[in-house]
Design brief:
Layout lengths: L5 E9 L1 H14 L5 E3 L8 E12 L5 E9 L5
Antiparallel strand pairs: 1-4, 2-3, 3-4
């Protein structure tokens, strides 16, 4: 299957620990390494890279994170 899925995903009202976990994972992957994510409506996880993300502070010490994700395939 060569039809890539792209998603705009959002995580809202994250506490500082969850926010840090997501941002650290995104930064470590650097848009090159993939991670497994199960898109809404899918029964299995797929491999995705983060094309970009943005952070919005919300009430208190909470944050929202929006990310653009693109599916990747194994090279054979």
């Amino acid at each position: 299957n060569s039809a890539k899925q792209t998603w705009s995903a959002q995580w809202e009202n994250l506490n500082s620990t969850d926010f840090s976990t997501i941002i650290t994972a995104f930064d470590a992957a650097g848009g090159v390494d993939y991670f497994n994510w199960t898109p809404p409506g899918s029964s299995s996880s797929k491999k995705f890279v983060v094309l970009s993300y943005s952070v919005t502070p919300t009430a208190g010490n909470n944050y929202s994170v929006s990310a653009s994700l693109e599916q990747v395939f194994d090279k054979t």
